[in-house]
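Write out the 3D structure for:
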Amino acid sequence: NKELISFNDIPFSDVKSVQCCVDAAEGLPRCCTATRVTVRLVSETRQQIGDVASSLSNLESDPHSPTYTDCIGSWDKSMLSASTYTFLIRLDTLERPSLHSSVVGYSVIKLCTDENGKQPISTTNSTGTNPPHPVLLNSGLFRIPVYYGSLIADPHSKAIFNEFNTGRETAGYLYIYPYI
């Protein structure tokens, strides 16, 4: 007798590994041809955790709404020491008609949330102990915007996810799902 568990209710302490999967993109600029999505797991100090994962778009798919190979990266428990990590996602293309490599844009998604959906900014609270509220894996299917341009370069910022200004112009959207 198995009980179904909502992905949004998985405590981060119970996670053994995390896989990041990109299913598709949509609404990309007309200059896009083949695209590559690259995913990095980064700490609050912007240190890369583990290896970079990437996937090329399926060549049979529409270049403005490409599809990708499902799972593009996996990080095991030995790499997941903090709940403050963020997935940093970059989308590149070969521009039409020159076929020069170009960055389409960036996106981010937080690895964990607190019970209010906010990204934890520390693995401990102000007294130096573990937070009193559970930290949950931010899993599920997401449609996230891809923003033109580059990241804000502030090394003192605690949460990369909170640095993105929603007023930026979007270059399209990615369908992504982190899961255990």
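The first strand starts at residue 17 and ends at 26.
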